[in-house]
């Protein structure tokens, strides 16, 4: 049932876009997409969510007369344009076929029975599906042993008003035709693909997808973005009544403002593109990272920043430096240390780096202000996490105990140190007061 709803949403979302789709940034992006993958003469290629055939026709030229390309899309308008382009080209694309159907149910599409492919491509479509792992597992069944899957997902700040709209709809328990929240980094895309049983050969970040690079919106322009995305576009059906739109407007403003830093909301024109391979014997790939147990998870108060860690942390260090006092609003910050390679941020929408010295980089959530981490530039292999950001219910093993108090020469005068048996240092060797 969920897939049928998703397919219906996709049709509504893209049908009206069919007729000017080839006038958008998708033309240039599909050229970049195919330049990053290997499509050889004689290959059989399956192009999923093919739209108007932008990538399909490029693949047709790559496979030549001895190969074949099948493009599949659920939107009739898109396929009508693709078919028209094929007819206009005469015999040039005789090795191309187009099929209509839901790409999350390839088994229901007549014309794909019993077929497997050397290459499967999915451009600008993965974030349309609520369960990316499940659809990738489904698509992998149509790969030949040793076959390649290439697909992309959005940067968390790509088309930022759309992300805010998604969060707004989620809070109102309304459906939107895309599901981008999970796509946070190259590593999150890699993990999703490998959890579906394919070995990722590389993940790259494609900058300037639509050509604007990076830009900043004034925080008080939230209403313009709300009107553009909710009132003027097809998702107005999602916010169907005046009452719902009024609620959505307030939530949209709140979520938009949570993303702002110094009165600006950053937008990043980038996507992550992964190239993965099915094993030569057709067996399911099991990544080494998948075998690592998660020791604990954590994040900020508002939930916009989330992480997981596969290593046991150090004991606790209470830092009493003036900087930690000021960024926390308290007498100290409690830190644990973990190997940086064991830490993965799974949600970074509001994660912001804070540079207050030349020696270390801190991070915090711009949504709720929670301090998250600190890394000393002299030791990037270790990351210090604020203990208050750890989800204690997720913790496996023995909870860390207080091992030391540092920077006591800057201790708040109203703070009374407990008799906890921890070591005490007036400062930290190799660092001075302004270095933290």
UniProtKB/TrEMBL annotation:
User: Electron transport: present as a keyword of the record?
Assistant: no
Q: Which Pfam families match?
A: GFA, Methyltransf_31
* Listed PROSITE patterns: CENP_V_GFA
Query: Residues in domain CENP-V/GFA?
Result: 296-415
Any GO molecular function: metal ion binding
Tell me which InterPro entries the record gives: CENP-V/GFA, Methyltranfer_dom, Mss4-like_sf, SAM-dependent_MTases_sf
Q: Which UniProt keywords apply?
A: Metal-binding, Zinc
Question: Which family would the database say this protein is a member of?
Answer: Belongs to the Gfa family.
The protein depicted here goes by the name CENP-V/GFA domain-containing protein
| Species of provenance | Periconia digitata
